[in-house]
Structure formats: C-alpha cells, structure tokens
Design goal:
By secondary structure, the chain is an alpha/beta fold. Helix content is about 45%, strand content about 20%. The chain has helices at about 10-20, 35-40, 60-70, 90, 105-120, and strands at about 1-5, 25-30, 45-50, 75-80, 95-100. The chain has a 5-stranded parallel sheet with strand order 2-1-3-4-5, with helices on both faces. It starts with a strand and ends with a helix.
C-alpha cells in the first residue's frame, strides 16, 4: 500500500511513518502543500494522511489536487483543532474518508489506513 503523510509537525509525521513502515506500507512523509502536490504529480498513492492545518500551504488544496490527479486515493484528515468538527469536511473534500484528532494513537491510525487500503483493493 502506498501512503503519503502530509504533516507539518515532524514528531507526529515521523511517528506515523515508523508505525506504517512496520506494517509494510510504502510511506512517503512530506511537510508542505508544494511537496505533497509534487509527490502526487509523480507517484500514485492509495491513502493520504493529511493534517488539516499545514504550516505551509493548504490541506484542502492538497485534497483537491489529489482528487483531480488520483481520484481513487483516499484521504484521512487529522487535526489538533475543532475546525470542521461538525463533520462538514466530508462536504468540502469528496475524497475524505475519516477525520481524526492528531492525538489519535498511531496503532489506531494504522488500523484506519489498513481499512481504507483494503476497501480500495477490494473495489
């Protein structure tokens, strides 16, 4: 499974990357909108773990670009804010499959990735 992590906080991004690598994922970790879109332009992905609030760029722009370039890629949004806590992210991002707090235990995030990766494989 090919996974792209887009997370500004290196501590979190690297933690998630280590957990996903241990489960056999092909994981790329980037920190900005530009790096994410550059990766998506050159590489296919199955799952994108995307922080809703990036230090550089827009998560919704990354999601929109992914939806255009790779419509089968699924996005798991993560955030440490209450923005979109009403679930409206699903109305704004057609490729959104989950919306989790940044503090979600890494093993739970891995389970979500495995679930949505399996859904794609089965389709």
């Amino acid at each position: 499974m090919k996974i792209l992590i887009v997370e500004s906080c290196a501590r979190l991004g690297e933690l998630w990357q280590r957990h996903l690598l241990r489960q056999g994922g092909d994981v790329t970790y980037v920190t900005t909108q530009d790096a994410a879109t550059a990766h998506l332009a050159q590489h296919s992905v199955d799952i994108i773990i995307l922080d809703l609030v990036l230090a550089e760029g827009s998560a919704l722009a990354v999601s929109d670009y992914a939806n255009y370039r790779q419509p089968d890629a699924r996005v798991i949004f993560v955030t440490n804010t209450s923005f979109f806590s009403d679930g409206s992210i699903f109305a704004h991002a057609g490729n959104a499959r989950a919306f989790l707090p940044s503090g979600t235990p890494p093993e739970d995030l891995v389970a979500m990735v495995e679930h949505y990766g399996a859904v794609r494989t089965a389709s």
